[in-house]
Amino acid sequence: VPRNLQARDLLLLVDRSRPAPVSRQLEEQMRCAIQSGAFAAGEQLPSTRVLAQDIGVSRGVIVRVYGQLAAEGYLSLRQGAAPTVRAAVRFDAKTAPPPSAGPRLLYNLRPHLPEVATFPRRAWLRSVRESLEQARSADLTYGDEAGLWDLRVEVAHYLSRARGVLARPERTLITAGSTHALSLVSRVLARRGQETMAFENPSHHILRAVASHGGQAVVPAAVDERGIRPDTIGDAAAVCISPAHQFPTGVALTPERRTALIEWAQEADAWIFEDDYDAEFRYDRAPIGALQDLAPERVIYVGSTGKTFAPGLRLGWAVLPPDLVDDVSQELLNSMLHVSGFDQLAFANFLHRGDFDRHLRRMRQVYRARRNLVVSLLRALLPQHRVRGIAAGLHVVLEMASPAAAAAVQAEAEEAGTLVETIEQHSFADYAGPAGLLIGYGGLPEPSLEAAIRGLAKIVRAAPVDDRQAA
Amino acid sequence: VPRNLQARDLLLLVDRSRPAPVSRQLEEQMRCAIQSGAFAAGEQLPSTRVLAQDIGVSRGVIVRVYGQLAAEGYLSLRQGAAPTVRAAVRFDAKTAPPPSAGPRLLYNLRPHLPEVATFPRRAWLRSVRESLEQARSADLTYGDEAGLWDLRVEVAHYLSRARGVLARPERTLITAGSTHALSLVSRVLARRGQETMAFENPSHHILRAVASHGGQAVVPAAVDERGIRPDTIGDAAAVCISPAHQFPTGVALTPERRTALIEWAQEADAWIFEDDYDAEFRYDRAPIGALQDLAPERVIYVGSTGKTFAPGLRLGWAVLPPDLVDDVSQELLNSMLHVSGFDQLAFANFLHRGDFDRHLRRMRQVYRARRNLVVSLLRALLPQHRVRGIAAGLHVVLEMASPAAAAAVQAEAEEAGTLVETIEQHSFADYAGPAGLLIGYGGLPEPSLEAAIRGLAKIVRAAPVDDRQAA
Q1: How does DSSP assign B161-223, residue by residue?
Q2: Cα–Cα 20 to 30 A to B113, which of A4, A245, B204, B219?
Q3: Which residues of A touch B169 (CB under 8 A)?
Q4: Which one of A23, A66, A90 would you mutate to disrupt binding with B, by most B Cβ within 10 Å of its Cβ?
Q5: Does ipTM come in above 0.90?
Q6: Sign of torsion, CA B139 B142 B175 B273?
């Protein structure tokens, strides 16, 4: 039988010395009581008049409290009837399963992970606060599907000065990241009848899956120590490349090859999709500029804050050839994937202040130290293995005797709680280049990194050298 | 000839009473000077030693300033050479065209616009700050494509208590809004061979365009004063409805029709896509609960913060039947459209505090007053026209004699700077129901609203009554 609760059953405490208003205090206590099951469904509460008298507050306070709790679905209020507790909570979040935990993980050395512990929370919060204070109402409502104009101006400035991109805000679109941009471009080109896209062999397998999902037939092009070989692209209508720090091999496209690639695109009347994913981090000299400014009418330049700032922000950009701007904007509108306007406002402020550049500069030093540690440890512990792709980015390649040897080490490392990837995972079926482990150093501070590399080296040394044994 | 700039040319001012560090002050002044063109490309700056001496700061300060400006691309620094200003800014944002301004707009009465001037900036900032302070590093990196677990729990709670949805966090996905959810579901169903989706006639034309873009053949189903007629759906594999406040007619689906619709779905083995777009705002009584809890295994329930909070946030949710969870999550992964993790963290905090419910409650009062004003003005000024769909949402329907009469008023109103929509704009070609103007009252405060409605009524009264004249 449901109780008729009296004021004394409610155990409400009003503390006038606390900064929170009395109504807020009462509301929180009653919400907690209902959520926790202390008041059950169907139980009746005292009237506003009675409860106000009993705990010594004005009746208006209780009216507000009951009103808020009714609005949240915890109470049912009807004229002339006693307020009644509703069966509001239909499941218990505490007992709901969290997302699958996966195997025990000690060290994550996967190649794409940046450090997020150094995320500049204070500076970012300042940008959130300032941008929200300055925002016009129009900024909070439906924005341009191509992105907020002020952010497009700031990003165009940034790409122009930091990456040498010929960027104008009219042709700079805001995306949810590089892969999102690839998804949009794949669909647009497929709709134009341009349905074959070449990818470097090896290249990130997720990019290929997304292009294929977007209607593209995906074909391989060879990569050697000077980068992609334009003579192997064939008759694809577009090629997707990562020239500044090829993923996963880490090679940089040489100037001669850059020229040859542009010539290929002009002759074939084809597009170049330039994925500038981590080029800001170059350690041996100034970052290599983007390819885009050699042929801005042919190159689709994309980048994001995923490696440089925080993957969770889901904020990136694409600088498009004039001929693609309208179609890609339309594709954005039709897939209704727009990027948070609030984040756009904050990031525009953050860029404008120079805080993004400051963060990059700081992170370049952090990553350089980690890279130096990894390279020197690998050279000392595994002198018979070449270490490649060390000039830039967030990972190095440890060459292995064969794909089977790399896979065996990867599997054993995972058993031991250390995640790495292999070149083989990212290559097409016919890949014949060097095998290797991809070792990311972005996400681990130096002491953990050292322990992880020492453990990994032990596994590599103990691994059978003969492929047939390892396979 | 490029100048060799001396310290005195730089006009640098160091104010030690300001809270900003000296290096930050100098950096800002020099950045401004280069951005504004006061220092031109190729001009040389004094060495760190000379400049430090001249303005009386330590040399380390100038080293930091030059370093930051070089990192931002404004300066070129080489060993043994004087620091040189780079041609960094390749375009002048001041002269770049802003996005097209469109015609002179006085009053926007389009039906979907919420009020954003009342956006609770202070409460939202508190949630941003708190959630960022409490965030684990893992929260800032790549998250679950289905959304952050904590937010899925909070949203499931909210939908359960406020909308009567049978929501469990495992089946609750975070999206960029309702239309984004429709885009995902359209693609998933098309891939399963379920390629026909019925839409209410009339219904929002953008929804139909997105479904069609996602691979669905779009067919009409009739709507009368009791809502959608299940007997007119035909053999579609899914139907998209807005039962709580049908868009655009504003009718609510009656209990009998709800039952009939569920029966249809069960017999036809079909899906119901429930777009609960503005049901939180009901003025005559408590909000009507969602349809979803009648058949959670058949109903795809979607909602968003677009009408209730701020469209710019681009944050919504979908509660899916168990059979669709994996496929829609995979579609999210493959289209790489994830929602900002930062916004997710903040919104989870905001929901948890009850701030979202508080905001809804406040806005319900704001909108009720605006609705009452619009309805009483229209009834007084245009007594010969029925006003419909007034029980909920953010717009009313003013019945017109014919589609042509509605279109003529819309065109004349636009000339005068007032935007409205018509039922005809949202109907299929064979629509034969009542014609009407859609008048949104969400985005205008009462004085502007009154002026807008008075102006509109004048145009309606002056419009020719005969269709043939108006067409």
Answers
A1: HHH-----GGGEEEES-HHHHHHHHHHHHHHTT--EEEEEES--HHHHHHHHHTTPEEEEEEE
A2: B219
A3: 93, 96
A4: A90
A5: no
A6: negative
